[in-house]
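Minutes, project check-in
Item: structure for the 451-residue chain
Input as provided by the requester:
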Amino acid sequence: MEHKLVTPAKTVAPPGLKKLIEQCQNLYPDQKNPLQVTALLKYWLGGQDPLDYISMYFNPGKAELNIPPHWHYITFGLSDLHGDGRVHQVDNSDETMEHLSGMGFELTFRLIKQTPSSENEKPPTWPANLLQALARYVFQTGNRFVIGDNVPWRKSLDSSTSNIQHMLIANDPQLMRTKTPFGWVDFCQIVGVTEEELDQASRWNGKGVLNLLKKDPTTGGEWLITNMNRSQSVFALFPDTLQQLEKDLENEGSDLAGVNADFTFKEIPKTKIKTEFDSEMLAVKCTLNDNVQPDRAIKSETIDDAKFCSTPLSTSNSLNMSFPPSYQSNSLQVVHLDGLQLTLAPYAAKFLILAIRDRIRHGRHFTFKNQNMALTMVSESVTGAVVSKKTPYGVLGYWMQVLIADDFIDVMLESFKDLVGGIGAMTLPREYNWPDRNLKIIIDNPEQQYD
């Protein structure tokens, strides 16, 4: 990744870029030429970095609101800057409709200033590398960020020893939705968070955790400013917030409807005569089926050593309304399985607890997605499912569904008690077996489960 730190030259800006710059200049009228990080080789010329520019502004904050001075980073390139198809597809099919510009958003980031101001001080450039990495993920997968999303990063955002190792997505408090010549653009702000804050955002909902962070300047304040020196989570600093969160989860359940996770499955047949159906057969079918496009937008498991949780698929209890159609077969044929053996990667084991306790128990559904297929656990009250109490395991296209009956929920939660604190030093593989349901769940690396 080759970047260059420059002061912008006075050139004629393309229409989309010009409109965004106007928005920034309205916010920072005294900073007409902020420092920028720009890719040496533009994306449309074969470069690897999709962002044309990342501008870095000094924001004085607002002392009366306990908002400290900070650096404000703003990207240009996730939206359509040029409108000529060089980066983003141009849709002129219906000129009466209001369209999103490109991906429909740009990213921002606010980083607290650790030292008093000086005329020659320059902002750190590591946030620009972080924003480019996030932009590459969006371009590679086609997945847009939305407010409340969580982004597990698994390492300090600035490659130090900081406890700020993950991110949530918020609205930028000062940059409002903007209409450009090529459509609407929102400004999504990256907010650095701790491991515990990410875990609770996954269990509950990202917006709820963001609201907790806003309540005190030490955790970001109203403008959600990231402080890489912050060592404690909002729940450690203010224990009452965790107690309230647990109450909300107990009463309302979790908004997180799915995550990326490696898994495999195979059928547990009731008779030896039947040909077993498994994920390996389905993966081959995915590869051979002409209806499956190889470049369809499925979230990659790893991007630059970072693992991204899937954005919530929906808060709807209808599977038909909430699941990507690319996983569903053009035919309506459902393959019902006699029984199921599911092998789930260790890092995703904690989501089994969330799925059953905070989703299924509240009448909802939860999905694990890998590169070729998806597995959705559904409660009895979910509509649109292809499974029932009589046939609880079924496959439709590249989508497997598992019904968790109401009278099975407490049984599973009792079995999963040892997962509450994470897998830790647990010996793998770890097996959970319910012979009366013809169901087995194994916590282990999925590739190790094939003979």
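Outcome recorded: The chain has a mean pLDDT of 85.
No further action items on this chain.
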